[in-house]
Design goal:
The complex is a heterodimer of chains A (557) and B (371).
Chain A: H1 27-32, E1 46-57, E2 60-71, E3 75-79, H2 86-93, E4 101-106, E5 109-111, H3 116-121, E6 124-127, H4 139-144, H5 156-170, H6 185-198, E7 203-207, H7 215-230, E8 234-239, H8 242-248, E9 251-256, E10 259-265, H9 271-279, E11 297-307, E12 313-323, E13 326-331, H10 338-345, E14 353-358, E15 361-362, H11 368-373, E16 376-379, H12 394-398, E17 409-410, E18 413-414, H13 416-429, H14 446-458, E19 464-468, H15 476-492, E20 495-500, H16 503-509, E21 512-517, E22 520-526, H17 532-539, H18 546-556
Parallel strand pairs in A: 3-8, 3-9, 6-7, 7-8, 13-20, 13-21, 16-19, 19-20
Antiparallel strand pairs in A: 1-2, 1-4, 4-5, 9-10, 11-12, 11-14, 14-15, 17-18, 21-22
Chain B: E1 14-18, H1 26-48, H2 53-65, H3 68-93, H4 101-123, H5 127-156, H6 160-182, H7 221-238, H8 240-250, H9 252-257, H10 262-289, H11 300-310, H12 315-338, H13 344-365, E2 366-370
Antiparallel strand pairs in B: 1-2
Classes of the chains: A alpha/beta (557), B mainly alpha (371).
The structure holds adenosine-5'-diphosphate (ADP) and magnesium ion (MG).
Adenosine-5'-diphosphate (ADP) binds at residues 57, 60, 62, 80, 82-88 of chain A.
């Protein structure tokens, strides 16, 4: 297959932005390419055709005349930064949203979907970013849920047999009688896939399916996807991770700011080129991190035990230290105690057993307020829910941590004159894009909101920074900025605890990596000796081999 | 399975889409249109009583705002609505749904009456000090009454809507026990009320206000209410504590992450809320009724909830809306006299206005799409 370009003029016309031209797309050229002599495709090979799709949301055009084609039996990646419009486009294809303009053809027939049910009837299924399963029901119950096929009496045995057959056929290991709450995230994803297949999906959309998986689980998933493609299914794989796209896709459609940049065959591109198409400019993958010998101990965690919201043990005796000039990464699949760890360190969760020390002083049962005063900053997991005040102004957001102290406070009053000055300074220094300091925080984009949080947290020159998923959901530019900022703080002397599900991020930023699994540390590796495979195994619950263990013990003592 | 269902024609559907920002003019046009609609529906109800709605509305307006006397009566009714409305608004700021202003108002009136009827003569206090102590007693009593649901909410996570509402019945029964039995005026010819307060400790009339007729009943409670609004605005917008209250109201999770004391502030805000409602009770008792009696409050505490909500919790807005609702109360009395309509028409209008204004809010936050 030849290379397929949307713009015929020059290969990577991506640097000119905004694009003055509407991409000229016609079905024929998209399918067959314009610079090749391959035998032309039969229209019957097109499984999905979306033409000139327009979808607007307040303030953004999420899809701006998007034309998208997928062939039968291919794995088609939909690549783009966060906010590029990938989920929106696929939500349209799966009947969740109605487009304002444009049309959809499935197997050559025009369709109008009013609901996901219509889409399922036409053979389109979607596995959403956030699963839609009922935890208290079993696998088979979830699979048949919402179907009106057996009108009165459920025949679960029949359904189970079908599930077993599907799981056999596609290598989706699952016990139909297991309850959803008993399953790991990877297994739940398999249930979602089976659910779609059970409903007869020929076209399966997966929205960022690897975000919640360990490297090994990702490999498993890819095997399944390949076998499905071989059997003639069309797979649309949404991602913003280039390595994965390179590994799995047959073809890629790149979206940027709601528009199609190009659709290309995977053999014809490199990771660097895809990145450039996605971002609109060349991207540097490495961030310089000078080697610095760590300084004094900042945080010491000894044998920490904490319970989760349900009262079950979440951390079972975790110990580690963080020193000055050091980024300690905590890798792990989400839900293994990371959130509880961050909360416990910040005085937001009672500590059952164990001790915490900050600069050698015990803070085990200190209040959040005292911990903040001692110079601990936090980048919370959820920017909206925990990190910002949506309906309040930027300046009111920026003083959340220092409003009690001079010079923001003057006695019992707040010196708003000073606050305005302070906010203007930070907006400038951290390059926050906003009309004014009176702008409400909810109007900021994800990247700018994160910059706002960083500005607030770093403005007090913290000694310890607890950063949880600091770049989750950010575009490449904002991600770069946030990472640089963190490294700069480390260079200046802060100790940083980096909790992230993104293994690449942990490996790139950390000086040491700890892997957490079910509330315990499976092992520790220095970042320069870290091996993805080894970390992946630890993320799945395997302890590090004995000689490494020795190293861990030594470094904690 | 038929394949045609997804491509066949369907009637267009209405859907609501969230607005990112609300244009400034909409936040004015929508409430005005909402009130107009409420009055339109009210007109139908009035017409069903065989009265010309146009005439009725004109009589209502005349009654409430058309004369010096009307205006003065409107202000008199507005004073407790202002104070209690301010109290409700500060709790609502923190998303504490204090429905208990009525009970807090009664408790305030009760405590003030106790000071005025018994402490003042017993200790031979100078009148200004007695008035001051009456205010203080009302603030403490209303504040403590508000603190109960606050503590239950803060410490035990008990729903404050239920507890504050239930405490209204407790408070009213408590006060009426005093009115009917313990403090009942023996020379009161069997009327269920206490003896009158000594004239010296009545809240002074604002005789210096120009244009109001001689003998009007507007009292110093009006100044108290205005002062309270200014202080409340200052407290919320200029102090560290007010900032905390606004942050907690906006996003309690973020407030927790910023180390703000949430439980303490829940209790404090409920106390402040109750204290303002208690002050409303004191003002009504010492400024208008001059004694504790049955029917002291025609549900001022409940109407205050509407006032606070329609004012969008803005202290100065509360003053304004309270005047409108005071007018509605006066107008209700007016049309009962002159138009032979039940006074409950004004309750119905209150309800309709709230209904339409709340309904109209949807349009300032969402736009309608037809697809
Ligand atoms: N339901 C929605 N309401 C308003 N805006 C939305 C909604 N869904 C998506 N958007 C906006 O549309 C744009 C595209 O979003 P999305 O399709 O989720 O991007 P992606 O999946 O590529 O990250 C973003 O700017 C996003 O904020
Ligand atoms: Mg998405």
């Amino acid at each position: 297959m030849g290379l397929v370009f949307v713009w015929r003029s020059s290969p990577f016309l991506v640097s000119c932005l905004p694009n003055p031209y509407q991409p000229q797309i016609d079905t024929h050229s998209l399918l067959n390419g314009t610079r090749m002599n391959a035998p032309s495709l039969q229209p019957s090979q097109i499984a999905v055709e979306m033409r000139d799709i327009v979808k607007r949301f307040p303030g953004v055009v999420a899809n701006d005349h998007v034309t998208f084609l997928a062939r039968r039996g291919e794995i088609h990646a939909l690549l783009g930064e966060n906010g590029a419009g990938k989920s929106t486009l696929m939500n349209i294809l799966s009947g969740l949203y109605t487009p304002e303009e444009g049309k959809i053809l499935i197997n050559g027939r025009e369709v109008i979907f009013h609901s996901p049910k219509d889409a399922i009837e036409a053979g389109v299924g979607m596995v959403h970013q956030h699963f839609r399963l009922v935890p208290t029901l079993t696998v088979v119950e979830n699979v048949v849920l919402g179907l009106d096929d057996p009108k009165f009496r459920l025949n679960l045995e029949n359904a189970k047999a079908q599930i077993r057959a599907l799981s056999e056929q596609y290598g989706l290991k699952i016990d139909p009688d297991a309850f959803i709450w008993q399953l790991s995230v990877g297994e739940q994803q398999r249930v979602e896939i089976i659910k779609a297949l059970y409903r007869g999906a020929q076209i399966l959309i997966l929205d960022e399916p690897t975000a919640v998986l360990t490297p090994q689980e990702t490999e498993e998933l890819f095997k399944t996807l390949r076998s499905m493609a071989e059997k003639g299914h069309t797979l649309i794989f949404i991602s913003h991770k280039l390595d994965e796209v390179m590994a799995i896709a047959d073809r890629v459609t790149v979206l940027r700011q709601g528009r199609v940049v190009a659709t290309v065959n995977i053999e014809e591109v490199t990771k660097e080129k895809l990145a450039e198409m996605m971002v609109g400019r060349p991207v540097i993958f490495r961030i310089d991190k000078p080697t610095i010998v760590p300084g004094k101990e900042v945080l010491r965690v000894e044998n920490l035990h904490v319970r989760n919201d349900k009262g079950l043990p979440a951390l079972n005796g975790i110990s580690f230290i963080v020193r000055e000039h050091e980024i300690v990464g905590i890798a792990g699949v989400s839900g293994n105690g990371q959130a509880e760890l961050a909360e416990a360190l910040y005085g937001l969760r009672p500590i059952e057993e164990g001790r915490l020390y900050l600069y050698g002083r015990e803070i085990t049962h200190a209040s959040t307020r005292d911990i903040i005063r001692e110079g601990v900053a936090q980048i919370p997991e959820d920017r909206h829910k925990e990190g910002s005040l949506g309906n309040m102004s930027l300046s009111e957001n920026l003083i959340m941590k220092n409003y009690r102290r001079k010079p923001v406070a003057r006695g019992p009053l707040i010196d708003w004159h000073y606050v305005r000055q302070f906010a203007r300074d930070l907006v400038k220094r951290f390059n926050i894009m906003a009309p004014s300091i009176q702008t409400k925080a909810r109007l900021l984009s994800g990247g700018n909101l994160q910059k706002l949080i960083l500005a607030r947290e770093l403005s007090s020159d913290p000694g310890l920074i607890i950063a949880m998923h600091p770049t989750q959901g950010l575009d490449v530019g904002a991600t770069e900025a946030v990472r640089k900022q963190l490294i700069e703080e480390r260079n200046k002397g802060a100790g940083i605890l980096l909790i992230s599900e993104d293994l690449d991020e942990v490996m790139q930023l950390s000086d040491r990596i700890l892997v957490i699994y079910e509330g315990e540390i499976m092992g520790e590796v220095p970042a320069d000796k870290a091996d993805r495979n080894e970390i992946g195994l630890m993320m799945a619950g395997q302890r590090l081999s004995a000689n490494h263990e020795q190293h861990t013990v030594n470094s904690v003592q | 399975m038929s394949r045609s269902s997804f491509s066949s024609y369907r009637p267009p559907r209405l859907s609501l889409e969230r607005r990112l920002t609300t244009p400034w003019w909409l936040s004015w046009v929508i409430p005005i249109l909402s009130v107009a609609l409420a009055m339109l529906v009210g007109a139908v109800i009035i017409a069903s009583q065989g009265v010309n709605p146009w005439e009725a509305y004109r009589a209502m307006f005349e009654g409430a705002f058309g004369s010096g006397y009307g205006i003065s009566e409107t202000l008199v009714k507005a004073i407790p609505l202002m104070l209690a409305g301010l109290g409700v608004s500060v709790a609502f700021r923190m998303k504490l749904w204090n429905i208990g202003a009525e009970g807090q108002l009664w408790m305030g009136a009760w405590a003030a009456a106790g000071v005025g009827l018994f402490l003042y003569p017993a200790w031979n206090l100078p009148p200004w000090l007695a008035i001051f102590l009456m205010m203080l007693a009302a603030i403490v009593a209303g504040g403590l009454w508000g603190a109960i649901p606050g503590l239950l909410k803060g410490v035990l996570q008990v729903n404050e809507i239920i507890t504050s509402l239930m405490l209204n019945y407790v408070a009213i029964s408590w006060v009426l026990y005093f009115v009917d039995i313990l403090w009942r005026d023996p020379g009161g010819l069997g009327f269920p009320n206490t003896a009158p307060l000594d004239k010296a400790i009545w809240l002074p009339k604002l005789t210096w206000i120009p244009l109001l007729p001689r003998g009007h009943r507007v009292h110093a409670g009006l100044l108290l209410a205005i002062l309270a609004a200014v202080l409340l605005w200052f407290l919320l917008n200029r102090t560290k504590w007010g900032y905390e209250v606004r942050v907690i109201g906006e996003n309690p999770d973020a407030a927790r992450h910023a180390g703000m004391p949430i439980v303490r502030n829940i209790v404090l805000v409920m106390m402040l809320s109750g204290a303002l409602a208690g002050l409303a009770g004191m003002a009504e008792m010492a400024g208008v009724a001059h004694r504790l009696q049955r029917g002291l409050s025609p549900n001022y505490g409940y109407t205050a909830i509407l006032v606070a909500w329609l004012a969008k919790l803005n202290p100065f807005g509360v003053l304004l809306v309270a005047v409108l609702f005071g007018g509605l109360l006066v107008a209700g009395d007016q049309i009962q006299l002159t138009m032979n309509l039940p006074r409950s028409i004004s309750d119905i209008l209150q309800g309709l206005i709230l209904f339409f204004v709340l309904g109209g809010e949807v349009f300032s936050r969402y736009r309608i799409r037809i697809r």
